[in-house]
Specification:
Elements: H1 10-17, H2 26-49, H3 61-76, H4 86-104, H5 131-145
Helix pairs in contact: 1-3, 2-3, 2-4, 3-4
Length: 146
């Protein structure tokens, strides 16, 4: 997956937003797709900020990105094809900002096999009981910090 293109189609937009758009009209489809393309840039920014542009997505991530793409497009669009009231627009905008923040902070990890910043980690403290083990601890630290 690269950070290019949209994650949802005009049909996805119409279905998720219950827009009732005339998808047989190529102008309506082109307008929806333009908003989806523009909205996808926010997703690309969040993914690029954590180096996730070239990973294999987790099984659930495709649908999640589709939802983000559609909601973001609905927030920025100004046409009759699925227009939402201003109070809903503000609510969705705040939700999107929260989701993008969670992605950028590594709390939502979209890449298959990766773990997020909230994943529990455990390590034992090394204790130097002798001069030899103290030197070994320093050597390990140097090797880890590279």
């Amino acid at each position: 997956m690269a950070c290019t293109g949209r994650y949802a189609s005009a049909v996805d937009y119409d279905t998720i937003m219950c827009a009732g758009a005339n998808l047989t009209d190529p102008d309506v489809v082109a307008r929806i797709e333009a908003y989806l393309d523009m909205a996808a840039s926010d997703i690309h920014m969040a993914l690029a900020s954590i180096g996730a542009c070239d990973c294999t997505l987790a099984s659930w991530a495709t649908q999640y990105l589709k939802k983000l793409n559609v909601v973001d497009a609905a927030v920025i669009q100004q046409c009759s094809c699925g227009s939402i009231p201003d109070d809903q627009r503000q609510m969705w905008q705040e939700w999107l900002e929260g989701q993008y923040t969670l992605i950028r902070e590594g709390k939502i990890v979209l890449c298959q096999g990766e773990t997020g910043s909230q994943y529990p980690a455990f390590a034992d403290a090394e204790i130097a009981h002798t001069d030899w083990s103290a030197a070994e601890i320093v050597a390990h630290r140097i090797a880890r910090e590279g």
